[in-house]
Amino acid sequence: MAQVRELRQQIKSVKSTAKITRAQEMIATSRIVKAQQAVAASKPYADQITQALSALVSHHVGIAHPLLQEQPADTRSAVLIITSDRGFCGAYNANVIREAESLIKALREQGRDPVPYVVGNKGITWYRFRDREVEQTWNGFSDRPAFADAETIGRRLAADFLKTDAEGGVGEIHVVYTEFVSMLTQQVQVRRLMPLEIEERTEGDGGSRALPAYEFEPSAEAALDLLLPNYVESRIFHMLLQSAASFQASVRRAMKSATDNANELLGVYTRQMNQARQAAITQEISEIVGGADALADSGGE
Amino acid sequence: MATLKVGLVSPEREIWSGEAKMVVAQTIEGQLGILPGHAPVLGVLLDGSVVKIEPADGGEAISAMVGSGFFSIAADEVSVLAEQAELGTEIDVSEARQRLQDALSESGDNPEEIATAERRARARLRAAGVDA
Fold this sequence. Notes:
The complex is a heterodimer. Chain A is an alpha/beta fold. Chain A has helices spanning 2-59, 92-109, 121-129, 147-162, 204-208, 220-299; strands at 76-82, 113-119, 136-138, 172-180, 186-194, 215-217. In chain A, α1 runs antiparallel to α6 (220-299) and α4 packs across α6 (220-299). The longest helix of chain A is centred in the last third of the chain and has 80 residues, at 220-299. Chain B folds into 2 domains: 4-87, F0F1 ATP synthase delta/epsilon subunit, N-terminal (ATP Synthase, domain 1), CATH 2.60.15.10; 91-127, no CATH class. The longest helix of chain B has 17 residues, at 111-127.
């Protein structure tokens, strides 16, 4: 009988775990929608700023700005790693960190000196646990990044980019983040953020349309001074939002498989318990029958 | 009559969009009224100024406070992009007054930052339709 009681206890605890993971899954599902809305809401700004910047650069060929220049003299490279603050998200953070580590290794092989900048508690603890040097960390907003957070990061990175190696600056900036492709697919991406590369865009109707020949108020240089940092911040904001959406999707998937596993376990335990109970009953019956037979045998004499 | 297609956006959301008769924005060099048929311009907004939009349907003019940002005009499309932007109707006047007081009483070692804070506070009040 003891075994039946144990199994009953197990079933109870698995059931309550399943309830929790199920709830987590539901929460994550609703947050994905919110995160996707945030991505969509940030799109007009990102599109406009990209268009304005390409118009500006294509009409002023050769316009120079420190943020656009390669800095071959600086061998330090910043690697911005975007992880989450919370766990319960399957391999989400492990994937980002693995990708970041292979990038860091590749940069070392090229003779550069990579310096990590980390966003999110999970990445911070990973690096701290291994006693690795980290230039700067940010946390507390991975679930719901605000533009101000992207601004803080962007300012710091731009400031470091403009410094030389000796002053603790960097020569280029890479970002490792997770792109939200769909509910089922999220991809870790590695991008070089700075120096900026001006790409000729051909896809979509935005690219085929001739860019307007703008006049600049007060001047093209002043406009570029304002546009470039804003563009960088808007890129970082985009990456933070994509990562947040991917994080929620990973949570949902992890919690869904946890719930599925719990339900499966529940089936196994229930069957075991029934078997144990049935065995006990069978044994009791055979004992009673055996006892009755013995009595009858002795009484019949 | 030709109208302008206007979009007022901040990085986090689209604040207002629609058709308008006229848009007034302020650059570092002065105010700029934009009517349909305007030449393409890309201008830097004065940090802490008011953007006025007169809707094409003859409704009440919309004013919004804008922080650091820029606007672009091309082919009767006006986009105002500001890192901070608030519609006048969304501004809490008493809170805005308080912020102005804070900005005025502030005395730090960065006078430029304080001046910007004050300009923004005043712009918020102006956008809300209160004299500041």
